[in-house]
Specification:
- Helices cover about 15% and strands about 30% of the residues.
- By secondary structure, the chain is α+β, with helices and mostly antiparallel strands.
- The chain has one domain: Deoxyuridine 5'-Triphosphate Nucleotidohydrolase, Chain A.
- Strands 8-10-6-1-13 form a 5-stranded mixed β-sheet. Strands 2-3-12-7-9 form a 5-stranded antiparallel β-sheet, with no helix packed on it. Strands 5-4-11 form a 3-stranded antiparallel β-sheet, with no helix packed on it.
């Protein structure tokens, strides 16, 4: 078994250039095993322990209370001021078509907390998945997914589907939001998470790739999209996007 190094930074609203200290803006990253009661009947089970030591929990740094009015397609909060509301809630879903809010499904994206993960290791995958308690405790289910983070550098988004729009979404500071897992070609590998400040090269890759997603996603050929999922040598095929400043 080997240990793979995963670097990470936490910031407010993509401010990875300053990378504020985690203690000032929220919670660090903890394994599920470290937060489990030691008197649990399965605490020392090697099967559960092997997996839980490779599952990490992301927690909310602030209180967030939201209510949805499906009929008027509006979103309200009694914990966020207007500036926070405008900055933390993404306009991605609040468009002219009101596609974020329908009778069948309501989806919300929140831009806090922000975590960026990157690595020099080869063929490492990152998975973002729902935490099992949020449906019961907070009235939402995080939207999951995974990709090859050795090839694709981008921050994790936090989007969720509301379970019941007749009830509020109540997130308290410290509540779990979602889980993060890492995978290598050898599932017996361990992972060491290291808080780091991203280099300008890492930031450039992140901004190039996120610019591709938001500006040009529909026009990207399948061969480029495959970099998300295949173990290929990482090179940015959109060099013209380097005009985006690192500021």
């Amino acid at each position: 078994m080997g240990n793979k190094i995963i670097n990470y930074a936490q910031a407010i609203l993509d401010d990875y250039d300053t990378c504020l200290d985690i203690d000032e803006i929220g919670y660090g990253i903890e394994t599920e095993h470290s937060k489990t009661l030691k008197n649990s009947v399965y605490y020392d089970c090697p099967v559960w322990k092997h997996k839980s030591n490779r599952i990490y929990t992301i927690r909310s740094p602030i209180d967030i209370h939201l209510s949805v009015d499906v009929e008027s397609k509006s979103l309200n909060s009694d914990t966020l001021n207007q500036k926070q509301f405008d900055e933390y809630l993404s306009g991605t879903f609040i468009d002219d078509k009101n596609s974020w809010c329908t009778v069948e499904k309501t989806t919300i994206q929140i831009l806090i907390p922000q975590f960026l993960f990157w690595t020099k290791e080869k063929n490492i995958w990152i998975e973002q998945r729902p935490h099992p308690l949020t449906s019961h405790n907070n009235n939402f289910v995080a939207i999951g997914g995974w990709f090859n983070m050795s090839n694709w550098t981008r921050p994790l988004s936090f989007s969720f589907d509301v379970v019941d729009t007749d009830n509020p979404i109540i997130i308290r500071r410290g509540d779990p939001l979602y889980q993060v897992c890492f995978y290598s070609s050898n599932l017996d590998d361990g992972f060491i998470l290291k808080k780091s400040k991203p280099s300008k090269n890492v930031l450039r890759k992140m901004r190039n790739f996120t610019s591709i997603k938001f500006l040009f996603w529909e026009g990207i050929p399948q061969s480029i999209k495959n970099k998300l999922f295949k173990n290929e040598k990482s090179k940015c095929p959109f060099k013209f996007l380097n005009r985006f400043p690192i500021s």
